[in-house]
Amino acid sequence: MSDISPVFIFDFQRNLNLRFSRAWTRTLKNLWWRSVTITQGSGSLEELYEWMLETAEIRPTGSEGTEIDFEDVVSISHRITNDNFGTGLRLSRNKIEDNRYDKAAQWAAAAANAGAYWPQRQIVKLIQGGKVNKAYDGLPFFAKGHPVNPFDDAAGTYDNLFTGMPLTAQNLAKAAALIQEIPHPGKAPRYLTPTVLLVDGSNKLTASALTGADILTDPLNPALAAPATNMIKRAYDFGQPITVPEFAREPGVWYLGCEADEEAFQGAFIYQERKPFELSSYVGMDQAELDRINEFEWHLRGRNTAAYGHPFLFFRFEP
Prior knowledge:
By secondary structure, the protein is α+β, with helices and mostly antiparallel strands. The protein has helices at residues 6-28, 93-98, 102-128, 169-180, 204-212, 231-235, 287-291, and strands spanning 37-41, 46-52, 75-81, 83-92, 146-147, 157-158, 161-162, 183-184, 188-189, 194-199, 215-216, 228-229, 242-243, 254-258, 269-279, 295-308, 314-317. Helix 1 runs parallel beside helix 3.
């Protein structure tokens, strides 16, 4: 009788799923992409997103209160298409019977790590390509002169790309002020609060000092080099800075982001999921079905995509 029985397969895949679940959970604990990304389910190949612009503005209505200006409902739309992604493992019957767990369990852990990290990998690619790839307003995601209202030139523009700004206390404070001044189309402040600071390894020490130290010495500004109370920590609510190893190819570049708000559908990036990553299974097959299989394959498959959201929620600073 074959060693590969329904009971064997059940036991084999239980171990596979255990390794998968543990690795997935461990990887998820070390990810940051959700802080700047909204996640959306999807029910079809592609989804149409409409970004409603806040154009409502209070104006005088005359002495009788009857001279009312009526606003247009203004929106920008773009489509996001899901793609297929996955990986797989193929083992012969002999390999499974001779070595029940090791190869498959190692693959399951590696696949889980890859699947859990996948959304962050996609967001990193968007950030790295942000000076070229376009946002919904037709400009590169990182650009100067993003329109506040693409349908009203008088509403002005804002920047989310800045040059000549190395990471210092003064520049961090300046950046926060510039972000807070960005208006929405209704000609009122957005009251944006940047709290997410992302840096490469070369800025890790500086970022940690600026956001966490009680007493600060800024060696990049000799005139202010004497130790002093860290007013950055007192005045702003930056979270623990995030060091992103993938940013090492652009040393000194740093990013500020505003926390994504799922309820308000406000995020710098979108992760859209048509089908979550799932492991295929042979559980449920009877002995006759299993006896006909000489090569067993396990697949990790999912359907998803990542795309740019609001440029006014994420900012790039170059030294």
